[in-house]
Write a structure and sequence with these properties.
CATH class of the largest domain in chain A: Alpha Beta
Helix content of chain A: 25-40%
Structural class of chain A: alpha+beta
Distance between the termini of chain B: 130 Å
Oligomer: heterodimer
CATH superfamily of the largest domain in chain A: DD-peptidase/beta-lactamase superfamily
Order of helices and strands of chain B: HHH
Strand content of chain B: under 5%
Number of strands of chain A: 18
Amino acid sequence: MKVRDFLNNDFSMKNNLKLRKIKLSICGALLTFSFVIIGYKTISLASLNKVNTKNISSKKNQLSFFVKSNRGSIYDRNGELLATTIKVNSLNINPQEILNKNETIKKLKKIFPQLNNQSLRKKLNTRKRHLNLLREISPNEHVLLLKQGIEGIKIEPRNKRVYPNNNLVSHILGGTNIDGKGIAGIEKSFNNRLLNGKDVTISIHNGIQYITEKILSEQIKKFEAEGGAGIVMNAKNGEIYAITSLPDYNANSYNSIFNQNLFNRATKGIYELGSTLKLITAAVAFESGRVNESDVFDVSNPLRVSSRTIRDFHPLNYRLNIPEVIVHSSNIGSAKIAEKFGTSTQLKYLKSLGLMDKLNLEIPELGTPQVRKDGKLLSTMTISYGHGIAITLGHLASATATIVNDGIHVKPTLLISNPNQLNDRIFSSETSKKMKSIMRLVVSSKHGTAKKAQATGYLVGGKTGTAEKVSQTGGYSKNQNIVAFTAAYPMNNPQFVITIMIDNPKGQKFSFGYRTAGWVAAPVIKKLVTRISPILNIKPQTKLSSDFSKGLIKYKIRGKNKGANL
Amino acid sequence: MIRYPSFIIVFLIVFVAISLYQVKHFITQKELELAAINKKIINTQSDLNILKAELSYLKRPNRIEKIAKNKLDLKEISAIDIWNLQHLVEVTKSMAESEVK
């Protein structure tokens, strides 16, 4: 029976007309419904949703583009590129597609002589379908490969992290693993941001960084030292312009270096930095109110405390005031000052200066300070001149900056700092003024220990520190020193803090066998200040300048045996 | 016999079908264009990164220093090479005063 016959079938003569109407209505309704759907879809595709669809698709594309292709770059404070990701070609091979293996090996060896014949043969004879021969080939080698027409060869692009400045600031930049994930330094700390394709700008100035590394490494070589570290930091906001740890390494080879060159001596290594800590002792003495400026301390005889005898490197036979204790770097004087203000005051200030905790710096390689906290008088005394307290160079730079920055805490940072950030006051302006004057005298006084840091035209101030190295067998080594110098300049309005440490320098003929901070570290400061000041726009000053000694107190410093009658 | 509504329905079906095909074709084409543009952006970005890295490599401070010293005969600046004009005025004044005396 045909459909038409069925539809026209007269089931019931009475309802014939009614049935037809119902059939027609159903068909009409279905047809209208279909058209409504088709019409809606057409309009939505053609006009309304077109924009949205486009936006969604482009957003999706953009997102996948950034995520998949490029890890963000790292720039220095002047926009100089320090790290970026580029595409390189890698050489892969499918051994199953190679017809003549001997011929292929011959052709490959011609282009890549570095490939080993035997291992190549071994690789080509495996049953694998995908093998990596070289992780990176040059565009020239790529062209030669194409010319040779070797079967089974696959050139595949891959991302490579590059550090165009090689060794420069390598300890801070860190590195990435084979999957492009940050595993050290800034690369690790800002991994998520970089993975999302966003760039990171750090406070490092690559010119200052280079000069610091160069001058420091020359001095290390000159004194046959094991290594060293240095920091150049803005004294007001803590922005680090240069931070170096020597020996260093090429950041491009991060994953193939396994020696101690990877160790960051500036932020991870903790050292007893000797007499540089006397600056903190003097500042605490002034601030605590328990020591008066007119107080004098007898340093004529070695000081016996418990089982230990505290001696001076340059013994003096009279009583010194605080500026003289610092300028002559008297351990006995410093110990006696600390005895006056006591253990709790000392620990309170060490804590507030951040010398008992890890630095809050934007890299993971940070050392935890070790401070002897047994509450004994001997510990308080030795800490006052830098023994029994091991801190990083970053801690020392931070403390120095705090002292010269009108007493307001300066926290080191590797990022461009927020100018509106308010930090706590640790020392009063008056204490800061006294300390700046004393620090200047350490360099400018003829009796100071850092005369060699005097840079013509720049008011450098600071403090030297020479400490015996802690030996691996315990105790202190008599033959190995750590020398340090923490400086600020210009002292009438300190703009920058420079902190240097050199590990185990050897006495030289030209230094008359001396390997003290005054001989080893102080000249580094002089050279650095002279070279970086024009770049940092710090103008030299002469005595004619009206603000030459502004804000500095003129303390009288006596020399050897000049005050025996006191 | 073809009725008037049927004619409209047939016309609408044909019109909608053609429109739908056109829209689909248009979108497919645009998506291909978008993919091509995105690929171009990726390649350009990659080339740009290589150029930036090369420029940074060429601008390495140790290389610039070498060029400045060996090719341009430049020397490191020292404090005595920099003079503040205000100081110059003060020095000249004091020298003039001492001459008068």
